[in-house]
Each structure stands twice: as C-alpha cells, then as structure tokens.
C-alpha cells in the first residue's frame, strides 16, 4: 500500500469521508463493469467493493491476475465474472459486448478505466506510428465502442458511467507526451460532449480527473519515482463516493490553479517548453 508523505497528505491529497453505508445501499444488487481491472486502480476498486453483494464484471488482458482477484473477492459477498480481452482488438471487444448483452439483469455501472500511457519524443517516434494508433485504440476508440453498444442497457437501468480521466486533459500539453495526451483528450472531449445526451436518457455521468497515481503504468518513467502520486486506494475511495453522490466531475482542489495558469500564461509556457525541448535535444 502506497503511503503519503506529510506534505502529500496535507497539500496534495487530503483525506475525505466515504459513507460506506450509502455506498453499500447504492450498489447492492447492481452489476458493474470495470475495464483495466487486473492491476492498479481497477484492481483496487474491485477489492474495495468485495464486501458488497453486487456483480462485478472485470475485464483486462491479464487472465491469471483476473482469476486470482476473482478467487479473493468471492470469499466475501460480491459475485465476480472475469473476461479476458484486449480492447484494442475490435473482435475481442465485440465478444465482450455479446457477453454483456446476455446478462439477465442488464448493466448498471460502467467504470471506464483501461488505458495506456507512453512517453516518447517525436524524433524517436518517426518510425513508430503504431505508438499513436495503439494508444488511441485503447484510450479513445475502445470506450467509445463499448459505450455505443451498452447505452441501451444502461438506459434501461438508469445507469452510471464513470470515466477515469487525467488532469492533463484540462491543462496545456507538454512535450514528449503527444500520443498519450491526444488520446486521453479525445475521449474526454467525446464524453463531455455526450454527457448531456446521456443525462437526458437518465444515465448519470462522472468524469474523474486524476493527477499522477501510483500504479504499475507509471513505473517505466523514472522521473515519476520522486513526484507526488495519489494512491490507488485513495482513487478507489473517490470512485466509491461518486457512485452514490453522482457528482458530474471530480478533480483535485489545486487543479483550478493549473487551469488558470494555463489560460494566463500560455505564451510563456509555449516558449518555456520549446527551450526545454531544445536543451534536452542538445544533451542527447
């Protein structure tokens, strides 16, 4: 379990109160789909809901991890179905959708959590178009494909869609993250555009904008090891709270400072980022 330093706890990730009774009442008897469920946020969310009598449908590429999670959780109250699928593969996604449409009680909640992060310069990407296509495939096309199919199921049950997004979609873009930021921004824009229509269909929507989170996805990036990072347990609690409050957005309190700076100092940032990229290129 990742523990916060004193500064992280006080300034960046202050604690909040999770009403477990309301969460239990909200989710009992419901069916929830979680993508990217074999590790990180998805895995922690599944474990945090084990004590509630609901049906968890866990989707990920790593079947062995899913089997372990299923065995652990079903020792408690939740029922678990696992589905191994690479959602970048259209056919495997279609097979998941067939499974979902055969659920006897339909679907109540979709937590769109599966994602791919990549840091690479444009110079090193000249012969790696696949980095962009595969990142867009999982961060944008996959959740769109799933939602377009399951919206009728969610509408029937007055469902709820939660998008696990990133604060980067609300800030100025930074060098070396073009593939990741473009793909996450694409779905964030799609989801925010679709949300009023979904709300009109009696489907609640929530966008959760997260800072750096301590998960296996960030481990390959050495620079992240010394940076403040939110714990997956903290994120699971945030998701738990929005499940019963149905609030439309969640973001760290300090994000407004970054958003304001993004508007006021865009020109300054563009010049600074260019100088940073130039100096880094000269050192290579």
Automatic annotation (TrEMBL):
Gene3D superfamilies: NAD(P)-binding Rossmann-like Domain. One of its GO terms (molecular function) is oxidoreductase activity. Keywords: Coiled coil, Oxidoreductase. PANTHER family: DEHYDROGENASE/REDUCTASE SDR FAMILY MEMBER 7B (PTHR44196), DEHYDROGENASE_REDUCTASE SDR FAMILY MEMBER 7B (PTHR44196:SF1). Pfam families: adh_short. Belongs to the short-chain dehydrogenases/reductases (SDR) family. This is Epimerase. One of its GO terms (cellular component) is membrane. InterPro entries: NAD(P)-bd_dom_sf (IPR036291), SDR_fam (IPR002347). Signal peptide: none annotated. Residues 59-93 form a coiled coil.
């Amino acid at each position: 379990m990742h523990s916060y330093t004193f500064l992280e706890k006080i300034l960046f990730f202050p604690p909040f109160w999770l009403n477990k009774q309301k969460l239990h009442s909200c989710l009992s008897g419901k069916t929830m789909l979680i993508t990217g469920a074999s590790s990180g946020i998805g895995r922690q969310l599944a474990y945090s809901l084990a004590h509630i009598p609901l049906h968890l449908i866990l989707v990920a590429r790593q079947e062995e991890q899913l089997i372990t999670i299923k065995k652990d959780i079903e020792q408690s109250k939740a029922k678990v179905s696992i589905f191994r699928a690479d959602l970048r593969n259209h056919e495997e996604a279609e097979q998941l959708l067939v499974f979902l449409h055969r659920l006897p009680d339909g679907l109540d909640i979709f937590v769109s959590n599966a994602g791919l992060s990549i840091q690479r310069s444009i110079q090193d990407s000249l012969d790696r178009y696949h980095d962009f296509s595969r990142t867009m495939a999982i961060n944008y096309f996959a959740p769109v494909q799933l939602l377009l199919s399951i919206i009728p199921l969610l509408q029937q049950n007055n469902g709820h869609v939660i998008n696990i997004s990133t604060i980067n979609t609300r800030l100025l873009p930074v060098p070396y993250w073009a593939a990741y930021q473009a793909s996450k921004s694409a779905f964030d824009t799609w989801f925010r555009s679709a949300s009023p229509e979904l709300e009109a269909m009696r489907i609640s929507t929530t966008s959760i904008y997260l800072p750096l989170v301590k998960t296996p996805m960030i481990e390959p990036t050495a620079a992240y090891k010394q940076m403040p990072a939110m714990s997956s347990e903290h994120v699971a609690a945030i998701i738990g709270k929005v499940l019963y409050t149905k609030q439309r957005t969640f973001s760290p309190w300090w994000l407004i400072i970054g958003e304001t700076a993004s508007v006021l100092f865009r020109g300054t940032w563009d010049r600074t980022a260019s100088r940073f990229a130039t100096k880094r290129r000269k050192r290579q």
